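PROTEIN FOLDING TASK:
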Amino acid sequence: MADAVCLDIQSRREQGLCVDRPFFTLCSYLIASIGIGGTMTAWYDETRGGMNMRVCVYGASSSRIAPLYKEAGRELGILMADADMTLIFGGGQTGMMGAVLEGVQSAGGDSIGVSPRFFDVDGILAKSCTEFYFTDTMRQRKQMMEELADAFIMTPGSIGTYEEFFEILTLKQLKQTDKPLVVLNTNGFFDPMIQMLTNAVEQDFLGDYIWELFEICDTPRKAVDWIGQGSGKAETRAL
């Protein structure tokens, strides 16, 4: 098995399909190519230290968002690194994703980027991560981030961010995961979403148990503290 994997790595290098950091580990490749399924490649920087809790952060890639959101994202990254939390994210170098990564790296923290190969074009991906995994599809990307993470934080974003959040929320509702889930409601960005859920509860499309499945925090400090305290493992319930 190891020989086959090594040959595959060499073949991918020759084809330009495998991008390496200073060191490439067989362990990371096995996790990517066998643990999740499909064809995936990875790099790992062995010069970095150990990892503790892994927190997946969802958020916008848009570079046009207001500075206050990026500032909150950078603060979140710094606080995560200070709390020895490793960042799991979609690998983008702009918007909320880039801001959180900047904060993590400025505080000496670790980061793991996950992205479909078709995003690997100039100016899109942040290749300074401690580890970076390429997948074939968006579905593989979401699955890998979910399985790598111990907890999740949704920061302001668009369609993809909402999709990722509601998938985790649905899994919690169906008792398929009990991992902590936080909404970082910077500047009241998610107030309309919260009102939408409130309306669904009031009209009996949802039970009020929904509020036990995730936490709403208005500052990065509260989000990190809540996850760090393990408060997110609320009991999940059936539909």
In short: The radius of gyration is 18 Å. The chain has two domains: 1-47, 50-128+137-228. The helical segments are 2-15, 26-35, 67-82, 95-106, 138-148, 159-173, 191-202, 220-228. Residues 67-82 form the longest helix (16 residues).
